[in-house]
Write a structure and sequence with these properties.
This is Aldose 1-epimerase family protein. Helix content is 1%, strand content 52%. By secondary structure, the chain is mainly β.
């Protein structure tokens, strides 16, 4: 499944409603990671109904335990295309009774991709179809390709005083104030860690050698994660820019999901929209 204009060619998969490819048509350059499982077998999964991990692989609602793996289940579900125009795809997922054992809320999720020039607008529309208040988190995880000879840095929209979150075994473990302005995409900053910040709204990844860039805008999102894995001493040829609505459990977990850091609530019959943009330059 494709969207295409004079600038970009995009390809999608109904599994997870995932953007699997972005090609710059002028340069014939691949802009996204190719999903090689040697480093990471995904390209741009949607994280739902949790972001990150829940402590001991489980969470609790009203005394009942439920088990979820890292980043939830939506990325592995089959979506239906409910709208396809020249510049837009809308995918839709309806929960079924089988999922109630891991997530006890009936729901619907629409994921839309709109292409305008070199900008992709991604819209998540979440519907609570349950009889009860629904708790959720949702996040993006797009992986952008890095050139072998590139020299990359992140440039934030403005110098910002934010918090960086510490991690212990993949769980949140405290936070510290930092000022974000520019950040080199190098081994010193990324080896063996994911960088997680709060209260940012836009970041640009720039190849300083060529001035090629991609800007991700995520106004209204609570957190931003930046991830570049390292395997056997080799840094991955991609970096992920991850706007999150929600975050992993704090180390030690919670007695009830209502106390979870960053958790969102959606009342019976309500729906909500979260949106971010990816602009290639």
């Amino acid at each position: 499944m494709k969207l295409e204009n004079e600038s970009l060619l995009l390809e999608f998969d109904c599994k997870g409603a995932e953007l699997r490819r972005a090609l710059n048509k002028e340069t014939q350059k691949e802009l996204m990671w190719d999903g090689d499982a040697a480093f990471w077998g995904r390209v741009s999964p949607v994280l739902f109904p949790i972001v990150g991990k829940v402590f001991n692989g489980k969470y609790t609602i009203d005394g009942q335990d439920y088990h979820l793996s890292q980043h939830g289940f939506l990325r592995d579900q089959e979506f239906e295309v409910v709208r396809h125009t020249e510049n837009e795809f809308v995918f839709e997922y309806h929960s079924d009774d089988a999922m109630l054992d891991v997530y006890p809320f009936k729901h619907k999720v629409q994921i839309a991709y709109k292409l305008d020039g070199k900008r992709i607008t991604v819209t998540w529309h979440i519907f609570n179809k349950d009889e009860n208040e629904m708790f959720y988190a949702i996040g993006a995880h797009p992986a952008f390709r890095l050139d072998d000879e590139g020299d990359y840095e992140f440039v934030f929209k403005q110098a910002e005083n934010v918090h960086q979150y510490g991690l212990k075994e993949g769980f949140i473990n405290g936070k510290a104030p930092v000022q974000l302005d520019r950040l080199e995409v190098n081994e010193a900053n990324f080896k063996d860690t994911t960088l997680i910040y709060d209260h940012t709204s836009e970041v640009t990844l720039i190849n300083k050698n060529t001035q090629e860039a991609v800007t991700v805008g995520y106004e209204g999102f609570d957190y931003l994660a930046l991830w570049r894995p390292c395997k056997e001493g080799v840094m991955a040829p991609f970096v992920c820019i991850e706007p999150w609505v929600g975050i992993a459990d704090e180390y030690g977990g919670y007695p009830d999901i209502r106390e979870k850091l960053g958790i969102k609530r959606l009342q019976k019959g309500d729906d909500i929209v979260h949106q971010y943009t990816v602009t290639f330059q």
